[in-house]
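Below is a filled-in request sheet from our internal design queue. Each sheet records the structural input a requester submitted and the sequence that came back. We keep these sheets so that new team members can see what a complete request looks like end to end.

REQUESTER: design group, bay 2
PRIORITY: normal
MODE: inverse folding
CHAIN LENGTH: 265
BACKBONE (tokenized):
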């Protein structure tokens, strides 16, 4: 059995285990905490924090294709995992990472690289509640620790600071936008994201967004994506999204799907 098949089966078993665990612990408390709010699959990532003393697990699979001149790169990330813990009412701690493999094809060559990417650790601080034209706001800081000896990992402690805002137009429609600044490798980069999201029903939500990155001495990368979220329990979500390039430097296409759960206290 190859490694890819083994990882896929492991992810499936983990998802089933979490489903059973949470179903057993589901009760009145989950009703009081309200509907799960995740940071995936969109890039804007929202402006909320998870409830105090709760752990939220967000997992997913990502496929990305990128062609540039005579090179084609296909990348899989599975699983991607993000752990979010509510330390205070306005503060959550965050840890995330993924296993990745890339197939690189050039004119007459073929090579494959794989391994664990950097481990991202950080926090999100909820700043204030929105009211009228005043948006809800949150500040997120993340450091990618170079703890892996994999070819996928960076040699530096890449850092990203992000300020996010959400304006709720009405009970079903919201606009979320973020601005980010980071230090990567030996340079810096800026990021932006803008998302419009809405509830089709209590259980189904949709969104569309544009986002981009501009690294020092590199061309800007602009992309757009759209996705569907299905909340089949108060604390469990399935999602799927598809993204495309808006600039030459951006990956041609990506597809992601995932499962998220907020564990009972």
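RETURNED SEQUENCE:
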């Amino acid at each position: 059995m190859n490694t890819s098949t083994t990882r896929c089966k492991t992810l499936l078993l983990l998802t089933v285990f979490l489903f059973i665990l949470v179903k057993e612990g589901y009760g009145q408390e989950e009703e009081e905490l309200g509907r799960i709010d995740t940071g995936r699959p969109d890039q804007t990532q929202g402006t909320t924090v998870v409830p105090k003393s709760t752990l939220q697990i967000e997992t997913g699979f990502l496929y990305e294709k990128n062609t540039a001149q005579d090179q084609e790169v296909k990348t899989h990330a599975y699983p991607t995992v993000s752990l979010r813990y509510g330390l205070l009412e306005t503060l959550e701690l965050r840890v995330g990472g993924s296993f990745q493999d890339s197939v690189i094809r050039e004119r007459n060559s073929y090579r494959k690289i794989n391994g664990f990417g950097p481990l991202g650790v950080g926090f999100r601080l909820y700043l204030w509640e929105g009211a009228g034209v005043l948006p809800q706001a949150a500040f997120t800081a993340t450091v990618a620790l170079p703890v892996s000896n994999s070819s996928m990992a960076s040699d530096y402690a890449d850092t990203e600071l992000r300020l996010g805002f959400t304006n709720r137009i009405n009970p079903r429609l919201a606009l979320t936008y973020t601005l980010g600044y980071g230090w990567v490798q030996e340079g810096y980069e800026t990021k932006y994201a803008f998302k419009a999201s809405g509830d089709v029903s209590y259980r189904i939500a949709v969104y569309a967004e544009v986002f981009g990155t501009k690294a020092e001495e590199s061309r800007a990368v602009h992309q757009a994506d759209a996705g569907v979220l299905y909340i089949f329990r108060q604390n469990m979500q399935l999602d799927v999204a598809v993204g495309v390039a808006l600039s030459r430097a951006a990956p041609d296409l990506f597809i992601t799907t995932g499962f998220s759960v907020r564990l009972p206290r």
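SHEET NOTES:
- The chain has a mean pLDDT of 88.
- Helices lie at 3-25, 28-33.
FILED BY: M.R.
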